[in-house]
Amino acid sequence: MNKKTKKFLSYYKPYLGLFMADMFFALLASSISLIYPMIVRYITNEILVKYDISESAPIIMKLLFVMLALAAIEFLSTFFTAYKGHMMGAKMEYDMRNDIFEHFQKLSFSFYDNQKIGQLMTRITNDLFDVTELCHHGPEDIIISSIKFIGAFFILININLPLTLLVFSFIPLMLVFALFMRGRMRRAFKRNREKIADINAQIEDNLSGIRVVKSFANEAVEMSKFKEGNNKFIDSKRNSYLNMGIFHSGLTLFTALINVAVIAGGGLFIAKKIINVGDLLTFLLYVNLLVDPVKKLINFTEQFQNGMSGFSRFYEILEIEPDIVDKPDAISLNEVKGEIEFKNVAFKYNDAKEDVFRNINLKVKAGEYIALVGSSGVGKTTMCSLIPRFYEVSEGLITIDGIDIKDIKLKSLRKNIGIVQQDVYLFAGTVMDNIRYGNANATEEDVIRAAKNANAHDFIMELPEGYYTDIGQRGVKLSGGQKQRLSIARVFLKNPPILIFDEATSSLDNESEKVVQESLEKLAKNRTTFVIAHRLSTIKNAQRIIVLAEDGIKETGTHEELLAKEGVYAGLYRLAYSSQE
Ligand code: ADP
Ligand code: MG
Does any ligand 1 atom lie closer than 6 A to the CB of residue 377? Predict the structure, then answer.
């Protein structure tokens, strides 16, 4: 058994009892369906023939009671399989959904760099639904179909062998037809799934960027792009429904043909007194019990395909090992001073051809305020993202207080680093929730203190419900500067000894930049800080400026030292910053 199948079966484990009960009731229900025609046969062949009305009435009454009892059992079984069976599937889906969400939390940045969120969402929704359907309908269908098929087969032989052979002469044809159609439908369903995943990705992309769409007044362009995808989807659906139409009508035709053949053959046998009317009637009832599982089995193969390919896609993701994980003997940091050293660090993105940089050597003292300068795309953000191990160094190592960051538990490492970026992501919820994201244990007073430190308290108090104002998804009801101050408050609350400000004020207007800058400086006090900024004021005050170029660190020094050097920084300074002075 391969690992995937093992994993699939492992989801049954917690529900083994429920599963067995489900199978039992499926078995019960299908066995009962085999009994009814038998009773019909008994009534027509025995009772109506051998007894007169006054004698047969009480017997028929008794049989009716038997049938009612059977109906009650069937009712219970059906209720159980429909309710508990579906619940078992739903619980298995619940477990899988938890597993994949947990796995999503573990996967590294490099994974998300190459994914469309909409497609990942599809994995959790559509794909898992297919799996659930398989989980409980699959085994049920197999049981029900086999019982009905085998039972009906033996009863048919028992009633009349030549007629049974007549029926079976159709079955191979039916199977060939069904298998052929199944192949076509499988491909069609696969296309459907790909197309719906594309559409979901497109919707996600569009809605995330709806402000850009509107600012470019590109609604019509988006609509026509969307229509293109949506058209592909409907074309794909048309194709699969066409195949489904052929499939189902074909099977219906086969069933009708079998019935006609049996009636023709049976009529002949009745005329020759080989069988009687009751037998033919019973035979026809069982023929349908026999054909039914053949149809079901074919549906099942389709369900199996869908479910297994849904599970494969689920498993594919579950199998992706996060490329950055704790070593078994990783340690937790305590009392971090904040000394950071890059030793011969080189870095290359997974799918890139060239290194972003090589030979980075840099020693940063605890509490030092370092500015990173360099043209856009040179690797400033990348260099900073190596410190919290968002990406792993390709060569060399980075240490915090002399400890290789690879030897530190990720959670502990990241708890000690605060990041303020240009783009602020705020979660759905209140201002309070969003600041508290920095420290779940913080009291209301802690949150307010952090907000005051971040120059956010005053504007928060002016919001309709103060700290308990719902800021909506992505915090759209706040200005850029306000959002930035919330994100700073979050870091105040986290209180890490190491900070990274990556263009934190770059998108702000002058006025809010000043307020944000002020709170950033307050935050930076007594913490090791890396600042990436394009504004002179931010950089000038740095204790040390690091100039990053294509081939590594070009210059380091204070603003004055670097100006005096007349090197890269002096050039950059004249070019970009002179106008600001
Ligand atoms: P900076 O912050 O100095 O503007 P970055 O660190 O963002 O520069 O980018 C450095 C280089 O790495 C650029 O060439 C950029 O295209 C590339 N890069 C950035 N992020 C990724 C990523 N997630 N995957 C692959 N390449 C990336
Ligand atoms: Mg950058």
Answer: yes
